[in-house]
Automatic annotation (TrEMBL):
This is Recombination endonuclease VII. SUPFAM superfamilies: His-Me finger endonucleases (SSF54060). Gene3D superfamilies: His-Me finger endonucleases (3.40.1800.10). It comes from Actinocatenispora comari. One of its GO terms (molecular function) is endonuclease activity. It comes from the Bacteria. Keywords: Endonuclease, Hydrolase, Nuclease.
Amino acid sequence: MPLPNDDRDGRRRCRDCGEWKPLDEFHVSSGRPSGRGSYCKPCFNKRSNASYERRGSTAGRTVRPREELPEGTRRCPDCRALKPLAEFPKSRSGRGGHGRYCKPCHNVRGRESRIRNHGSTREYHLRRRYGIGVADFARMLAEQGGVCAICGRAAPEHVDHDHVSGGVRGILCFNCNGGLGHFRDDVEHLAKAISYLRGTTPWVEISPGVYRSNSRTPAVRRSRII
């Protein structure tokens, strides 16, 4: 005669709640013939939490009782706010595919970790993306005279690197760095752009190799269309 919790047509009776459920609602257990445990997942989790609390009390630890939360929500351990799972960053290793801390608290912890391990978020960013540190940046900028390597604007803040090799080329201002990116670092495109400008705008050579626009073409006034 089969025992009360023996498998029947792919189902099993949980020893705690007594309900018949599909086998996939029982945790995997290599010690059972069917490969599934004797307790359904909710009952198993309750037993596990109770056991954890008992062990904590025996060891003298203060164990916070597990809170029953609405489905699709989580309480952040740092700010203690109850939020939807969408307010937590995605995490492959996290329970339910989401991290433990909400996004604001996750960001705060990330900044603290970067400062603790690297001294500053700037150092972390430069090391991670370009392989140089704040000291390397300052040295390169000093070698350029403290100005953008292209236009000469003071105090540039952007690292220019080769998108193929990844090597750092220099320190540029925002406009020059963006300009190279828009031209996709293509020398031929940049040369054509120079030829285009020289062919469409009157230029005056004010010193060898240095030109200044001398355009006196009046701007075309466009009538407002009503």
